[in-house]
C-alpha cells in the first residue's frame, strides 16, 4: 500500500482545482500561523517587560483578526476538500458501474485506452473463484465495493492528499522562520523531524496486511449476506436459515476482530508519533530555556521558537493520522482497480484496434423507422472467461430484415449466448458479426457500432424479465421513458396485459414489489412484452418467452408475440418447435454449432 497510489492520484487530477484551493488555503493558514506566533510573542514579551495595553493594542487586535481569517480559511479549505472528495468518488463509482455493467453512465469519464468493459455476461460470472482459481468479486461484494468501499475514500481525497502537500511545505516554512530567529533551534528541529516519517513508514508496513484483511472480510460479509437474503426461501424450506445465521455471525465476529486490531495498531502508532513530536519539542524547549537563562537569546525570540516548534511537527503527525484513516479506502480502491483491469475483450483480452468506419450512415436510417439492417455472422465463436469449452463454435448465420427466425436446441447449446452477442453483452472470441444495409451492402462489424446506438434498434424480452419495485406505468415506460399514458396503455393492450393491470388495487399506479413479486410469471412476461411494444424497435429478440407458463398464459403470450413480430425482424429462442407457424426460418443449435436453416 503506497502513500501515493498513482491511479488514485490520476483520479484526483480531475478535481485538481478544488484540491489546489484546499492546498492554497492550507498554505495561507500556515502563513497566518507564523504571523500569529510572532504577534503572540510580541504581546507576551511586551507584557512581561511592562508595556501597557495602549502600546500592545495593535498587536492584540492583529491576533484577533488573524484568528478570524484563519477560521474562515479553514472552513473554505474543508469545504473545497469535501467537494473534491465527493467528485473524485463519484467519478470512480461511475467508472466502476460503467465497467461492470457494460453500459455508459451519464457523466462518467472516458475509460483509459485499452480498458475493457464488463457487461451483464461478465457480471453474471462473478460468483466466486474463477476457472484459474483466482478470487473474483461476487455481486454482493461489488455492491459493497461501489458503496461502502468508495465512501471510505473521503479521508484520502479530502484530508490525506492535501495534508501530504502541507507536510512538505509547512515544516520548511517554519524552519525558515525559526532559522532566521535562532539557527540552533532550527538545527534541532531539522535533525528530529525525519524521525516522524521514518516511524510512519514502519507502522504503515505493519498495518497494511491488517487493513487488507479487514476489507476482504467486509467484502465477504456483504457478498454472503446478499446471497443469504436472495436464497432465504430455499434456506427456509430446507431448514438451513439458522445455520446461515450462525455463519453470518461468525463472519461478522471475524470482521469485528480485524477492525479492532487495525484500530489498535492505528491508536498505538498515533501514540508513537505524538511521543516523538513531544520529545522533539521538549528538546527545543530545553535548549532554548538554558540559553535564555544564560542570556544567550532574548525573551521574544525564545517565545517565538517555542510557539512555532510544535507547528513544525504538526503536519507530519496529521499525515500519519490521515493515512491510517484513509487506509480502508485505499484498500477498497485497489480492488476497484483490480476489477477495472479485468479484461473481457475479444482475442484473449486484447482490445480491437482496427480502424473504425463511421457507422452513423448505417445506423441512422434504422433510427428513422426504416427497415432493420441485415445481420450476418461469419464463423463466430464465443468462449466465456475462465472456461475452456466454447459456448459457440464457428457459427455462420444470416438474419434478413423483416424475417423471423426460430432458434431451437437443448439447454446449454448456445442459444442464449447467441442473443448475448447480438445484445452486445459479450463480444465474439472468434469470427465476426457484420451489420449490413437491407440490400446486403455497406456492412460494418457490430463491434464498431456504439453499443448504446445499436441497442436503440432492439427490443428484448428475456426469459426472466426484471421488474423494478415501481409502478406498472413506470415499469412499462422503461421501453420508452418519454411515452405518454395513452401510449403505455396501448402497449399493454397489445401485450394482453391491460385487463389484469386494471384489476390491480391502483391500476397502472400499483407498485409491483421487488422483481415484480406481486405478479405471476405469465403476467410479468406480458409486462415485458408491453415494454417491447412501447419501444417499437425494428429488431425483436425473445428468449424462451413461454417457458414455465401455464397453457392459458402461454397462449396469451403467443398471441402478443405474433402481433409484436408483424413487420419486424425477430429471433425467438425456444426449446420446442411450437413457434413454427410464426416464423419464416428455423435453425437448430447443438453443442455450440448451428445446423442448416429449415
Automatic annotation (TrEMBL):
Pfam families: ABC_membrane, ABC_tran. It is a multi-pass membrane protein. GO terms for molecular function: ABC-type transporter activity; ATP binding; ATP hydrolysis activity. GO terms for cellular component: plasma membrane. One of its GO terms (biological process) is cysteine transport. It is found in: Cell membrane. SUPFAM superfamilies: ABC transporter transmembrane region (SSF90123), P-loop containing nucleoside triphosphate hydrolases (SSF52540). Its main location: membrane. InterPro entries: AAA+_ATPase (IPR003593), ABC1_TM_dom (IPR011527), ABC1_TM_sf (IPR036640), ABC_transporter-like_ATP-bd (IPR003439), ABC_transporter-like_CS (IPR017871), ABC_transptr_CydD (IPR014216), P-loop_NTPase (IPR027417), Type_1_exporter (IPR039421). Keywords: ATP-binding, Membrane, Nucleotide-binding, Transmembrane, Transmembrane helix. It comes from the Bacteria. The keyword Repeat does not apply. CDD domains: ABC_6TM_AarD_CydD. This is Thiol reductant ABC exporter subunit CydD. It comes from Thermobifida halotolerans. The gene is cydD.
Amino acid at each position: 500500500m503506497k502513500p501515493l497510489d498513482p491511479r488514485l492520484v490520476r483520479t484526483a487530477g480531475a478535481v485538481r482545482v478544488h484540491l489546489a484551493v484546499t492546498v492554497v488555503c492550507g498554505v495561507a493558514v500556515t502563513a497566518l500561523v507564523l504571523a500569529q506566533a510572532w504577534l503572540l510573542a510580541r504581546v507576551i514579551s511586551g507584557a512581561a517587560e511592562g508595556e501597557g495595553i495602549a502600546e500592545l493594542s495593535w498587536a492584540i487586535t492583529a491576533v484577533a483578526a488573524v484568528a478570524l481569517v484563519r477560521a474562515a480559511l479553514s472552513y473554505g479549505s474543508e469545504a473545497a476538500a469535501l467537494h473534491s472528495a465527493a467528485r473524485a468518488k463519484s467519478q470512480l463509482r461511475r467508472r466502476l458501474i460503467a465497467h461492470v455493467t457494460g453500459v455508459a453512465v451519464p457523466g462518467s469519464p472516458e475509460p483509459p485506452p485499452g480498458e475493457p468493459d464488463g457487461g451483464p455476461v461478465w457480471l453474471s460470472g462473478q460468483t466466486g473463484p474463477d476457472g484459474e482459481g483466482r478470487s473474483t468479486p461476487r455481486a454482493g461484494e461489488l455492491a459493497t465495493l461501489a458503496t461502502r468501499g468508495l465512501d471510505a475514500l473521503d479521508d484520502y481525497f479530502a484530508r490525506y492528499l492535501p495534508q501530504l502537500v502541507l507536510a512538505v511545505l509547512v515544516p520548511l516554512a517554519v524552519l525558515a522562520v525559526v532559522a532566521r530567529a535562532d539557527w540552533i533551534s532550527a538545527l534541532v528541529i531539522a535533525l528530529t523531524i525525519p524521525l516522524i516519517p521514518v516511524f510512519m513508514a514502519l507502522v504503515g508496513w505493519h498495518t497494511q496486511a491488517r487493513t487488507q484483511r479487514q476489507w476482504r472480510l467486509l467484502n465477504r460479509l456483504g457478498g454472503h449476506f446478499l446471497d443469504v437474503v436472495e436464497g432465504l426461501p430455499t434456506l427456509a424450506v430446507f431448514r438451513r436459515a439458522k445455520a446461515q445465521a450462525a455463519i453470518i455471525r461468525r463472519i461478522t465476529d471475524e470482521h469485528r476482530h480485524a477492525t479492532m486490531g487495525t484500530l489498535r495498531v492505528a491508536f498505538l502508532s498515533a501514540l508513537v508519533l505524538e511521543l516523538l513530536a513531544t520529545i522533539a519539542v521538549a528538546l527545543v524547549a530545553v535548549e532554548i530555556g538554558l540559553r535564555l537563562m544564560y542570556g544567550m537569546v532574548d525573551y521574544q525570540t525564545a517565545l517565538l521558537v517555542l510557539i512555532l516548534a510544535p507547528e513544525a511537527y504538526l503536519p507530519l503527525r496529521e499525515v500519519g493520522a490521515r493515512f491510517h484513516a484513509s487506509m480502508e479506502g485505499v484498500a477498497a480502491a485497489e480492488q476497484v482497480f483490480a476489477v477495472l483491469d479485468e479484461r473481457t475483450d475479444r482475442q484473449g483480452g486484447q482490445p480491437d484496434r482496427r480502424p473504425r468506419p463511421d457507422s452513423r450512415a448505417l445506423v441512422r436510417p434504422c433510427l428513422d423507422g426504416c427497415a432493420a439492417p441485415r445481420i450476418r455472422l461469419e464463423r463466430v465463436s464465443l468462449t466465456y472467461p475462465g472456461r475452456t469449452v466454447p459456448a459457440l463454435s464457428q457459427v455462420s448465420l444470416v438474419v434478413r430484415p423483416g424475417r423471423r427466425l426460430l432458434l431451437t436446441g437443448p439447454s446449454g447449446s448456445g442459444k442464449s449466448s447467441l442473443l448475448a452477442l447480438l445484445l452486445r453483452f459479450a463480444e465474439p472470441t472468434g469470427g465476426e458479426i457484420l451489420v449490413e444495409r437491407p440490400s446486403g451492402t455497406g456492412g460494418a462489424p457490430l463491434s464498431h457500432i456504439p453499443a448504446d446506438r445499436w441497442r436503440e434498434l432492439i427490443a428484448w424480452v428475456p426469459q426472466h424479465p426484471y421488474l423494478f419495485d415501481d409502478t406498472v406505468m413506470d415499469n412499462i415506460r422503461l421501453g420508452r421513458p418519454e411515452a405518454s399514458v395513452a401510449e403505455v396503455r396501448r402497449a399493454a393492450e397489445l401485450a394482453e396485459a391491460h385487463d389484469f393491470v386494471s384489476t390491480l388495487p391502483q391500476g397502472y399506479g400499483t407498485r409491483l414489489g421487488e422483481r415484480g413479486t406481486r405478479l405471476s410469471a405469465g403476467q410479468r412476461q406480458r409486462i415485458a412484452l408491453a415494454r417491447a411494444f412501447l419501444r417499437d424497435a425494428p429488431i425483436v429478440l425473445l428468449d424462451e418467452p413461454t417457458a414455465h407458463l401455464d397453457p392459458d398464459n402461454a397462449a396469451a403470450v403467443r398471441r402478443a408475440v405474433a402481433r409484436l413480430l408483424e413487420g419486424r425482424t425477430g429471433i425467438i429462442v425456444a426449446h420446442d418447435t411450437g413457434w413454427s407457424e410464426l416464423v419464416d426460418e428455423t435453425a437448430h443449435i447443438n453443442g455450440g454449432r448451428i445446423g442448416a436453416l429449415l
